[in-house]
Task: inverse folding
């Protein structure tokens, strides 16, 4: 893609941009388009907020302590050397 | 571990529910050495697993919970995954991505042993959602989507759970766990292009569910008015 891009190409690359999946050159080109194009900027701004919101709100849950304890205990059982008489 | 019997030239074993001891022979000393080496290997194996794999238990649990939709089942699924991973640890390529490897085991375990047990409720049809139109009417009213802050976490998770499985799993691997497209493609065994397409449709469908909820709750107005 050239150093300029059109609206359609930019929108097609929007999520790849927000997911940091573009090459540095393409990222700079697409980002510049969104920053400078009055027609595309609102979509960029909104989708960027949406992705940040989603990531911030769904990743906080941790495994219950009881599960962590159970897994540790089971691993210790697995850790027993094989039965010599087997 | 060596016990008093071994130090006295006997090796101890456990058979038929009773301990026995027998005089040490060259063969039994060799067997003894073999078992102590195995115990050391098992201990190294366990320490390595605890260092490399166990830190990903939160990830395994979160994904298990969203795949199964049930907290009890998610705990069982997460535990089964970690045990299978421990038993297969020798197959893990050192230096490669332990998290993606665990998620692959989780996914196979879910598909083969858990999925059929769960009858999930109605799901959102992602094909009905037109690209980037869901909140178009609200861009002027709320350009940065501040109303999202009013939506409680449980409602967001419910919205994610309403997605069809292949879209839900792609979205959680990306937005919940931060996997790259290539990693998601590895875990879900589809091309990167399919990952991108599923993620796009999943996010758009999720926006529609959240919009409907926000409208119902009065966080935004219909038509952006």
Result:
């Amino acid at each position: 893609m050239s150093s300029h891009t059109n609206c359609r190409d930019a929108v097609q690359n929007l999520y790849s941009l927000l997911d940091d999946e573009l090459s540095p050159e393409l990222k700079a080109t697409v980002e510049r388009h969104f920053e400078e194009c009055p027609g595309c900027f609102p979509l960029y701004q909104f989708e960027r907020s949406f992705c940040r919101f989603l990531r911030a709100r769904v990743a906080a849950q941790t495994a219950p302590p009881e599960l962590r304890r159970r897994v540790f205990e089971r691993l210790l059982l697995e850790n027993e050397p094989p039965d010599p008489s087997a | 571990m060596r016990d008093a019997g071994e130090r006295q030239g006997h090796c101890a074993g456990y058979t038929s529910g009773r301990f026995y001891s027998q005089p040490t022979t060259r063969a039994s000393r060799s067997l003894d050495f073999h078992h102590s080496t195995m115990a050391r290997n098992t201990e190294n194996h366990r320490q390595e697993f605890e260092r490399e794999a166990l830190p990903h238990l939160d990830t395994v649990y979160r994904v298990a919970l969203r795949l199964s939709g049930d907290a009890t089942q998610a705990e069982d699924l997460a535990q089964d995954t970690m045990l299978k991973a421990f038993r297969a640890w020798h197959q893990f390529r050192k230096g490669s991505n332990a998290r993606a490897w665990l998620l692959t085991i989780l996914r196979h375990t879910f598909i083969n042993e858990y999925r059929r047990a769960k009858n999930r409720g109605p799901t959102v049809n992602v094909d009905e959602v037109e690209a980037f139109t869901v909140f178009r009417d609200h861009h002027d009213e709320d350009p940065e989507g501040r109303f999202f802050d009013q939506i409680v976490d449980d409602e967001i998770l419910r919205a994610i759970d309403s997605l069809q499985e292949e879209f839900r799993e792609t979205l959680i691997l990306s937005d919940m766990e931060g996997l790259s497209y290539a990693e998601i493609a590895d875990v879900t065994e589809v091309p990167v292009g399919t990952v991108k397409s599923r993620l796009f449709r999943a996010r758009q469908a999720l926006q529609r569910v959240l919009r409907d909820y926000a409208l119902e709750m009065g966080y935004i107005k219909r038509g952006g008015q």
Notes: Chain B touches chain A through 55 residues (CB under 8 Å). Strands of chain B lie at 10-15, 18-23. The two ends of chain B are 75 Å apart (CA to CA).
